[in-house]
Structure formats: structure tokens, C-alpha cells
């Protein structure tokens, strides 16, 4: 045995950094942009429809003469905000239920697992659509629907990890040494789960943003005139020839955000 | 003429030499043993001769195999000889068979594709090979349905099917108990008797003794000593070889029996089963302060389950365990076979030990006092379990237990993954602990010699199936 | 047997969940649900209070929630989905019409993704860290970050609007398949390729894979006889799970291209709050997932006997 201390570097450290930078850039644009160039995402001026960039609207105008810059910034706050709220709810719920199911075993475990398995069989998009039809308010509906879809992944991950950790000699030793469940969770379970949770959270956020945009794109998500990424794209699609940049702005922003989140998530263990 | 001749084989990693020049030759009918501890470079030597080194390592030197002359620096040249000239036996036979293919097909495929027999002939030959190895009827099983020994024999049949005359076995007895170890040695010698060459790489002195022939002892990438196995083992000329041989449990001086202290635990008529199979029954023994109870038996006989019963982790299906009054739950502790798996892997060892000390109201200075007593450097405390050698970590595990002031330590094969010299250190420390701390130790080992020279009493368990019929008490009494 | 039992329970749970969700959807409908259903069945002109009452009794919508819910579930489990609120046709017939178009599209997309993804993934996995591996990593990461609707949009812009190579909408001819199928397949292929690559790299590093070569098999023989068989198990399992992604893609892509399939119908049904249609399509999709995964379970158990244990 050598005395060299191996400091494990997470594979793809550079990849994760790139992802972080991309996500940060998009978020900074959405948060700081409108402060730097004040403007109203809803104000119409048909005279300016589809006209090019100018100081008050750095990305030009859409078909109704609204500033694309401000609409995009607004859209890039809306979906990530909903997505993060849903991921936090789902992550917390999944973590608590997952560790609880693994620690309790028996019927608790069986019932929760069966429920999670059944949800896994349903396309998330479909569940979100149904919840949207039930819950009043589109943003609230997206939050509820996405939380319902996303908790399953967190549940499965934390359940599997907890299950494995609890069966390990390390936990047996810790228990024999007289430590209780809190210590076991803090020193054994959480350090195993935390990195997975982070990965799952990044994937979950990406999924949520994709769902919101996809439903907006097919006219069953956010309603006009709310600026939303998918909705903006479908609205600007007919004007591709006249104003390609108008359409490309939300396309590029969406891709950058999703790519950033995918890179941030790193490789998923399968 | 030599079957295989290797001259000036070296291995380096990124320019740093990790194996210094070694030359060897393999004669028909005379085995060659390469003996060394972990990190001695013994496996690298074998891999360089076979052309199977990992990509980031470079070998130099010449290998003559029959009338083929090969350059160790160009591993591609060796590939055509695999299976046809050299047969390589894998370390862990279970993992070396395709889990999705029936045993006989794996042998058939070598006869068919490597040796070039027709499909029907290959299958007949495979079936007859398996019959010869005592595997009649097992050919239609998948690897996971075979025992470790059966898998090993299937792997031997598959490795030899291509018609190679030279067999290279890298640690063929890794993780096997004594009986199985001898069985493997005999199988290898039987192959040799068919007029081939045999090269065995091992850290296991018992295996080396049984194989015989010639021997090369390696340490830290250099040849320490070479000669006939029997003479090296009986009269080593180098200090390192002497230490290595002295560390073999066969050569240990028996431990002085300890005086009986206060009784700690009495077990009467214990029985346990797993998955409906009776593991053991009517087992009775006493544990007393300062004494060591050795437990031996083949794998799967219920040694670990017995530990779980004593530690209160599972219930026995029959019998009673009476503990002396006033013992807390933490008086019963366990030392694990794989110490890395027994520590929380995400925090430093110092932190883990400090947590244990705090939990049990011990001053942290006690850790500092115990460290030198167990021969441990303070710097180890800043590391995580994965960055410490097995021997050091096992001693740290012992230290962790001592913080709790245990009365019973169940040591489950605590040294089976350690090199002989380290094994002796750990076992010596364990014996000292029994005396110094006045605790009872249950020492599980698959090595009867180790137990015989260490324990005050020995409890030997038979194979699980045989236990079902045995009802007599199984305490084998004091050794002296 | 155990597998079938687990899957049967899963199917039942799926039905119950969909029943609960659509029941809640029904109760949340603006206005009197029974009146709307009656209107859907008999036409708005022919609805009177009596007809609405009849529907209310039939569906058990009038009373307290629990018996109404149980009645609702009962209908569902008898596979009695009722009639569409929009067209007045029995739901089961509507779905029958649309399912074929969706299956054709999904089938072509899956086939395309299997031709593209796994072979590249396996080649990359044979030499982890090699040029192909690194290129594939970049491409697949990029593709994974493009949602299907965005892929559809990009393909339409490039192939249809810009170069006028292919029609952006339409149905019936082979060339109509290309864009929607490609929009679905590229994302699936990106993920397939990663799964195949990881599985191949893992299996290539296993002792048995080296041992097969030490035994004397050539790299090609080892790949064909031992590599592919072992890679197929995780790949098939993953394909089963990917069915959900596929369905989501079909829903969006059909809506984008106006493909007359089940996904298109679902979006319409949601839009017009046609609850029986939503229920029927959702159940059809959920049960297809269970069915496909059951088949995959059985196949992988045949390949890998350890799974049957």
C-alpha cells in the first residue's frame, strides 16, 4: 500500500462547471436584464411589430410590437420559478417518503412503492395536463402537477440508497457502537443521497421547464399574453422569414438553460 | 527446452518503474510459484508475460514461448497465443464466466472457436471435460447456479479447451477456505501432470507449499529470493522471506492459554437457520474475560449468523444466550472482515473516532493514547477509510471498539483480506486486547492453523447441511 | 409468476389513479357535468333536465363524493368509458381509430432510434475515452437538452421551411412520417446510445469479458457472443421505461404536426374538457406501458435467468 492520499475528483467536474455557468448566465439575464434596460413585457405597439433591435428593446419586437427582450426575461423567470418550486416540493416529499419507506419496510414500503410504480407508468405530461384541468390557476396547476410527477424519482432514489446503506456493515457497526437513527441518517444516509439528490434536482428542473414549454407550444399550458418560452416560440413561428431573430431568441435561451441543467446534473447512475 | 522463458521483464507507469527486471523460465512438469504480498508486483509480472497489462502500464523485455519470440512492449503480439499456448486462470471464477450462458456452452465455445473442432464434436468434448472434472450434469446450469468450486472447475475447463500447454493462475485461491484451497491446488497439479507448465501467482504460503517446484519471492517490484520452493520455505536466506514465512500461521508459536476470568456469556443449545436450511443446532459455549474462542468451519456454515445471535442482532431459532448482569448493549462489539465497509465512508477517521469517544463520554485524549499502542500514526486520522491500508484500518477499527470498552468482541474473519505479515500484527494486537482489556473474543477464521495457535477454545462448525443431523454439543474443548 | 402479479397490481393501480384523477377533473368541470355529458351525447338541442338527471343517475355523479367515485371506478374497471362529450361517439371507438396512427408513428420513431443509438453507443463503449466516445458524449448531451417540441420546431424550420425538402404537416404518405418520426427518434437515440455505451463499458471491464478473450476468442467473437447478450438486458429494461418519454413525445409531436393520433386527440380532449376521452386515452397509454414492460420483463428473464429468481 502506498501512502498517497487519493482525493477523488468527481468525474466531469469541468462539465458541471460549464453547466453551472450556462444556467447562471441565463438566470442573470432574466433577473438583471430588465433592471439594466427597463421595459414592459406586455406593452404593445403595433407600429413596431417585428422591427429590429433598438436601445429600449435590445432583441427587437414581436408580431404585436412587444419587446422580446422583456418578454424573454419574464419568461425565463416564470418557468424556472415554477420548476424550482415543484422540485423543492417533490424533492422534500420524495426524500422523506423514500427514507421512511426504506427504514420502516413492510406495508408502508409496499404501498408507497406500488403508488410510485403506478405513477411511473403514466406519462408526466399527461398527469400535468389532468392536474391543470383540475387546479384553478395555471401556475399553481403546473406546480401541483409537476410536484406530483417529480417526487417519484426522488422517492425511488432515496429509498434505494437508504435501503442499501441501512443493510451495510458500516451502519450495523455504528448501531452496535450505540448511535441512534439521527446519527445514522446524518453520517451514513445523507452523504450517500445528497449528490444523487442534486443530480435528480437538476434533471427535475430541466424536465419541469421542458413540460411547461412543450405544453405552452401546443397551446394547452400558459395562456397568452403571459410571456412563456413555448408560447413565445409558437407565436413567433409564423414570422420566421420576416424576423428570424425574434424566434431564435427564445429557442436559444431555452436550449442554453436546458443544456446547462443537463450538464449540471452530470451523468445519471443507471 | 523451456516451455516459457521471460528475460528482463520490467513494468513502468508513466516512466516510473514499478517492476524491476525479472527473468524466469518455466519447465514442463515443474511448477513455478511467484510469491508476494499486495503491491509486490507479482500480478503485474504475470500480466506482462501474458500481454494483459492495463493500458496505462508499459512492459519491456523478451518472452520466448515455444518457438514464438515476443516483445513484452507490444502486447498485441500475445493475443494469438491466448488459449492456444497460454491458458489464464482467473482470480474469481464466479465473475469469470458469462452470467448469461450455460456452463457447458462456455466450454464448448472454446473447443469450437479456439481449437477449431466441429460443433457436435466440440460439445461432446466439453461434456467429457466436465465429466472428468466431476461436473457431470452441471453443464446445463448457469454460473450463478454453480458453487464457487464448480465455477472454478468450469473456468479451468474453458481456459484449457483451446489446447494451451502453459497454465497461468493468478491468485487462484483468493477468498477460499482451507479445504477448497487444497482442492484447487490438486486440480492445478493434475493439469501439470498432463505434461504442461504451471505458473502460480499467490500470497498464500500454504498454496505455495502444496504446489512446490520453483519459487520467486517478490517485494515492492524486486526479486528478493529465488530457488526451489521447498528449500526457500525451509531455509530462507533473506530477512524478508524469513518474516514472511514466520508470519504464516503454521509457523506461529502457540499463544499461552489465558487464565479463566469472570464469565461474561453462556450460550446453551443454540440453533439457527437461514432460508429454511438449518445452519447449526445444539451449540453450547461459555465466554469468559480474557479468553479467545476460535470458530472455524467452511463458508456458509453459519459463523456470521452465530455472531449475529451473540451480538443480539438476530434471534436464535432455539436455545438461550445468558449475559452476565450489568452489561450494557454496547459491551458487545464486532470486528468486520472488510474494514473499509465498516466505517462511514464520507467522513475522516478522526471524526468518526471522536464521535464514538463523545458518545461514550471518553476524553478524546484516549484516542491519542491508543494510537501508538496499536502502532498507528496520528496522520491517519485526517484520512477517509478508502485512503488507508487494510491493516491500518483494521487496527483503527479495533481502536474504535476499545473506546466503547467492550466485553465481547466478535471478530469475523478480521484478517482474511490482509497480507500474512499484517495478519500476524492484527492477530497479536487482538490477543493483547483480550488480556489487557479483559474482554472475551470470538475469533472466526477459515484458517484452522491460525485458530489453533490463537484460541483458548475452538468451536468448529460443519457444513450447513451436515449440521442438520448433528445434535451433539460441538465444543471441542481446550487445546492444550 | 411473481412478475406477472406485480405488473397486474401496477396495472390496477394505474387504472385507479387515472380514475381518481379524471373523477376529480369531472367534479372540477365548470357547470353541471351531467348536463354537459348529456349534451355531448344527445346534442345541445335535445338536452332537457330529464336527460341530465338520467346521466347523473347513470354516472352516480349526483350524490356524495365517495359512492360517486366508486361508481365511476366501477365503470372504468368494466372498461366502460362512455361517450365523448365532443363527438358523441363511444370513446373506445374513437381511441381505436387514433391508436393505429400513433402506433405507426411511435414504431417508426423507435426503430429509427434503435438503428441510430445502440450501435453507436456500443462502439463508443468498447473504447471508453476514445474519440467516438467523446464525440458521442457531446452530441448526445446536446440532443438530450432539446425537448421534442423544440426538435420538431428546428426540423420544420430547416427541412421544411428553409429547404422545402419535406412537408411540415400531413398524413398518409411515407414522406409525412419523416419529420415527426425524426423529431421523436433523435432524442430517444441520444439516450439509448448513452445507456448502451455505459452498459458496454461496464461489461467490457468485467472479468468474464477479459476471460473470454484470454480463452482465445477474438474481440469480435467476444462482442457477438458475450458482449451483446449482456448489453441487451439493461438496454431492453431501459427501453421499457423510455416508453413514457416516447408517449410524451408522441403527444407533443402529434400536436405540433397535426398527426391524427391518440396524443393529438388527448390534447384536444383536455382543451375541451372531454373527460371520458381523457380517461380513455390516459388509461390506454398507462396500460400500454404496463403491457410493454411486462413483455420486456419476460424477455429479459429469458435472457438473464438471474432475474427470474
Automatic annotation (TrEMBL), chain A:
Any Gene Ontology biological process: protein transport
Membrane topology, from the record: Multi-pass membrane protein
Alphabetic keyword roster: Cell membrane, Membrane, Peptide transport, Protein transport, Transmembrane, Transmembrane helix, Transport
UniProt KW Membrane keyword: yes
Organism: Pseudooceanicola nitratireducens
Source domain of life: Bacteria
Annotated protein name in UniProt: Peptide/nickel transport system permease protein
PROSITE patterns for the chain: ABC_TM1
GO molecular function: dipeptide transmembrane transporter activity
Annotated GO CC locations: plasma membrane
Pfam families per the UniProt record, alphabetical: BPD_transp_1
From TrEMBL, chain B:
InterPro entries to which the protein is assigned, alphabetical: AAA+_ATPase, ABC_Ni/Peptide_Import, ABC_transporter-like_ATP-bd, ABC_transporter-like_CS, P-loop_NTPase, Sigma_54_int_dom_ATP-bd_1
One GO CC term on file: plasma membrane
Sample GO molecular function, one term: ATP hydrolysis activity
Domain of life: Bacteria
SMART domains: AAA
Cellular compartments annotated: Cell inner membrane
Keywords noted in UniProt: ATP-binding, Cell membrane, Membrane, Nucleotide-binding, Transport
Pfam families with a match to the protein in the record: ABC_tran
UniProt membrane topology term: Peripheral membrane protein
Entry keyword annotation includes Thylakoid: no
All residue ranges annotated as the ABC transporter domain in the record: 4-245, 265-479
Family: Belongs to the ABC transporter superfamily.
Protein name in the entry: Peptide/nickel transport system ATP-binding protein
Originating species: Pseudooceanicola nitratireducens
Lineage, uppermost ranks: Bacteria, Pseudomonadati, Pseudomonadota, Alphaproteobacteria, Rhodobacterales
From TrEMBL, chain C:
Gene Ontology molecular function: dipeptide transmembrane transporter activity
InterPro entries in UniProt: MetI-like, MetI-like_sf
Keywords, ordered alphabetically: Cell membrane, Membrane, Transmembrane, Transmembrane helix, Transport
Annotated membrane topology: Multi-pass membrane protein
GO CC annotation: plasma membrane
Subcellular location: Cell membrane
Residue ranges crossing the lipid bilayer per the database entry: 6-26, 104-126, 146-165, 177-193, 238-257, 277-299
Keyword set includes tRNA-binding: no
Residue span, ABC transmembrane type-1 domain: 99-300
CDD domains, alphabetized: TM_PBP2
Principal subcellular localization: membrane
Family, similarity comment: Belongs to the binding-protein-dependent transport system permease family.
Name of the molecule in the record: Peptide/nickel transport system permease protein
Amino acid at each position: 500500500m502506498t501512502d498517497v492520499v487519493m482525493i477523488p475528483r468527481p468525474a466531469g467536474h469541468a462539465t458541471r462547471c460549464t453547466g453551472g455557468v450556462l444556467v447562471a448566465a441565463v438566470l442573470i439575464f432574466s433577473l438583471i436584464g430588465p433592471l439594466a434596460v427597463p421595459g414592459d413585457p406586455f406593452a404593445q405597439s403595433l407600429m413596431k411589430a417585428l422591427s429590429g433591435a433598438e436601445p429600449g428593446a435590445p432583441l427587437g419586437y414581436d408580431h404585436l410590437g412587444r419587446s422580446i427582450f422583456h418578454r424573454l426575461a419574464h419568461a425565463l423567470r416564470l418557468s424556472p420559478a415554477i420548476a424550482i418550486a415543484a422540485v423543492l416540493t417533490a424533492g422534500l416529499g420524495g426524500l422523506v417518503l423514500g427514507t421512511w419507506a426504506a427504514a420502516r419496510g413492510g406495508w408502508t414500503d409496499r404501498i408507497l412503492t406500488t403508488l410510485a410504480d403506478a405513477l411511473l407508468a403514466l406519462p408526466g405530461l399527461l398527469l400535468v395536463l389532468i392536474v391543470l384541468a383540475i387546479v384553478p390557476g395555471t401556475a399553481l396547476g403546473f406546480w401541483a402537477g409537476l410536484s406530483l410527477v417529480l417526487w417519484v424519482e426522488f422517492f425511488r432514489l432515496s429509498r434505494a440508497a437508504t435501503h442499501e446503506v441501512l443493510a451495510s456493515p458500516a451502519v450495523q457497526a455504528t448501531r452496535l457502537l450505540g448511535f441512534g437513527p439521527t446519527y445514522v441518517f446524518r453520517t451514513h444516509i445523507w452523504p450517500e443521497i445528497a449528490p444523487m439528490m442534486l443530480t435528480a434536482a437538476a434533471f427535475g428542473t430541466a424536465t419541469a421547464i421542458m413540460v411547461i414549454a412543450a405544453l405552452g407550444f401546443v397551446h394547452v399550458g400558459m395562456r397568452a399574453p403571459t410571456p412563456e418560452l413555448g408560447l413565445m416560440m409558437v407565436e413567433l413561428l409564423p414570422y420566421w422569414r420576416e424576423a428570424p431573430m425574434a424566434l431564435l431568441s427564445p429557442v436559444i435561451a431555452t436550449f442554453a438553460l436546458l443544456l446547462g441543467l443537463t450538464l449540471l446534473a452530470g451523468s445519471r447512475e443507471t | 527446452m523451456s516451455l516459457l522463458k521471460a528475460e528482463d521483464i520490467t513494468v513502468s507507469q508513466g516512466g516510473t518503474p514499478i517492476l524491476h527486471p525479472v527473468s524466469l523460465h518455466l519447465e514442463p512438469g515443474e511448477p513455478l510459484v511467484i510469491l508476494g504480498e499486495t503491491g509486490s508486483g507479482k500480478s503485474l509480472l504475470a500480466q506482462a508475460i501474458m500481454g494483459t497489462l492495463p493500458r496505462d502500464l508499459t512492459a519491456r523485455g523478451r518472452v520466448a514461448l515455444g518457438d514464438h519470440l515476443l516483445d513484452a512492449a507490444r502486447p498485441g503480439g500475445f493475443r494469438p497465443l491466448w488459449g492456444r499456448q497460454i491458458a489464464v486462470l482467473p482470480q474469481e471464477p464466479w465473475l469469470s464466466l458469462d452470467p448469461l450462458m450455460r456452463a457447458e456452452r462456455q466450454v464448448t465455445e472454446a473447443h469450437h472457436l479456439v481449437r477449431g473442432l466441429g460443433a457436435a464434436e466440440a460439445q461432446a468434448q466439453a461434456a467429457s471435460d466436465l465429466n472428468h472434472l466431476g461436473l457431470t450434469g452441471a453443464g446445463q446450469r448457469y454460473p450463478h447456479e454453480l458453487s464457487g468450486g464448480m465455477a472454478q472447475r468450469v473456468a479451468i475447463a474453458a481456459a484449457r479447451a483451446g489446447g494451451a500447454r502453459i497454465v497461468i493462475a493468478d491468485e487462484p485461491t483468493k477468498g477460499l477456505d482451507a479445504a477448497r484451497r487444497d482442492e484447487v491446488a490438486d486440480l492445478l497439479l493434475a493439469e501439470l501432470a498432463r505434461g504442461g507448465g504451471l505458473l502460480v501467482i499467490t500470497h498464500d504460503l500454504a498454496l505455495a507449499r502444496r504446489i512446490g517446484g520453483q519459487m520467486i519471492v517478490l517485494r515492492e517490484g524486486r526479486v528478493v529470493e529465488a530457488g526451489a520452493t521447498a528449500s526457500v520455505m525451509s531455509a530462507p536466506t533473506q530477512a524478508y522471506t524469513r518474516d514472511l514465512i514466520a508470519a504464516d500461521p503454521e509457523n506461529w508459536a502457540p499463544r499461552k492459554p489465558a487464565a479463566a476470568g469472570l464469565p461474561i456469556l453462556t450460550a446453551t443449545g443454540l440453533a439457527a437457520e437461514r432460508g429454511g436450511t438449518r445452519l447449526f443446532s445444539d451449540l453450547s459455549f461459555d465466554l469468559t474475560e480474557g479468553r479467545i474462542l476460535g470458530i472455524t468451519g467452511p463458508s456458509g456454515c453459519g459463523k456470521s449468523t452465530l455472531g449475529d445471535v451473540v451480538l443480539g442482532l438476530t434471534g436464535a431459532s432455539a436455545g438461550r444466550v445468558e449475559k452476565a448482569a450489568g452489561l450494557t448493549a454496547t459491551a458487545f462489539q464486532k470486528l468486520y472482515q472488510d474494514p473499509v465497509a465498516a466505517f462511514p465512508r464520507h467522513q475522516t477517521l478522526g471524526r468518526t473516532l471522536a464521535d464514538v469517544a463523545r458518545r461514550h463520554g471518553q476524553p478524546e485524549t484516549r484516542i491519542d493514547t491508543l494510537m501508538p499502542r496499536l502502532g498507528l500514526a496520528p496522520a491517519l486520522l485526517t484520512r477517509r477509510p478508502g485512503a488507508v491500508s487494510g491493516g491500518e484500518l483494521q487496527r483503527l477499527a479495533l481502536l474504535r471498539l476499545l473506546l466503547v470498552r467492550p466485553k465481547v468482541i466478535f471478530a469475523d474473519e478480521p484478517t482474511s483480506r490482509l497480507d500474512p505479515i499484517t495478519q500476524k500484527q492484527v492477530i497479536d494486537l487482538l490477543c493483547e486486547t483480550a488480556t489487557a482489556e479483559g474482554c472475551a473474543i470470538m475469533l472466526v477464521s477459515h484458517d484452522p492453523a491460525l485458530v489453533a495457535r490463537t484460541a483458548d477454545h475452538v468451536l468448529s462448525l460443519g457444513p450447513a447441511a451436515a449440521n442438520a443431523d448433528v445434535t451433539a454439543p460441538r465444543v471441542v474443548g481446550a487445546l492444550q | 409468476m411473481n412478475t406477472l402479479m406485480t405488473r397486474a397490481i401496477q396495472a390496477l393501480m394505474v387504472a385507479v389513479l387515472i380514475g381518481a384523477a379524471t373523477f376529480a377533473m369531472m367534479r372540477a368541470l365548470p357547470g353541471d357535468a351531467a348536463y354537459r355529458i348529456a349534451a355531448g351525447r344527445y346534442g345541445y338541442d335535445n338536452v332537457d333536465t330529464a336527460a341530465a338527471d338520467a346521466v347523473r343517475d347513470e354516472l352516480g355523479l349526483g350524490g356524495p363524493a365517495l359512492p360517486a367515485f366508486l361508481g365511476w371506478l366501477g365503470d372504468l374497471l368494466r372498461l366502460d368509458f362512455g361517450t365523448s362529450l365532443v363527438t358523441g361517439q363511444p370513446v373506445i371507438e374513437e381511441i381505436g381509430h387514433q391508436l393505429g396512427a400513433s402506433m405507426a408513428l411511435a414504431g417508426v420513431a423507435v426503430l429509427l432510434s434503435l438503428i441510430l443509438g445502440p450501435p453507436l453507443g456500443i462502439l463508443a463503449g468498447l473504447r471508453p475515452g476514445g474519440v467516438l466516445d467523446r464525440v458521442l458524449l457531446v452530441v448526445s448531451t446536446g440532443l438530450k437538452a432539446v425537448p421534442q417540441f423544440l426538435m420538431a420546431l428546428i426540423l420544420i424550420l430547416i427541412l421544411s421551411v428553409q429547404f422545402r425538402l419535406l412537408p411540415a404537416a400531413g398524413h398518409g404518405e411515407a414522406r409525412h412520417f419523416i419529420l415527426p418520426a425524426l423529431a421523436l427518434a433523435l432524442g430517444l437515440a441520444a439516450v439509448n446510445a448513452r445507456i448502451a455505451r455505459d452498459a458496454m463499458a461496464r461489461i467490457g471491464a468485467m472479468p468474464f469479458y477479459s476471460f473470454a478473450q484470454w480463452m482465445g476468442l477474438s474481440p469480435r467473437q467476444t462482442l457477438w457472443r458475450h458482449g451483446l447478450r449482456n448489453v441487451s438486458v439493461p438496454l431492453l429494461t431501459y427501453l421499457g421505461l423510455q416508453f413514457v418519454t416516447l408517449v410524451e413525445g408522441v403527444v407533443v409531436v402529434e400536436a405540433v404536426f397535426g398527426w391524427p393520433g391518440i396524443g393529438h386527440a388527448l390534447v384536444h380532449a383536455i382543451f375541451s374538457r372531454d373527460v371520458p376521452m381523457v380517461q380513455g386515452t390516459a388509461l390506454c397509454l398507462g396500460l400500454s406501458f404496463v403491457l410493454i414492460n411486462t413483455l420486456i420483463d419476460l424477455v429479459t428473464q429469458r435472457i438473464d435467468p438471474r432475474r427470474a429468481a
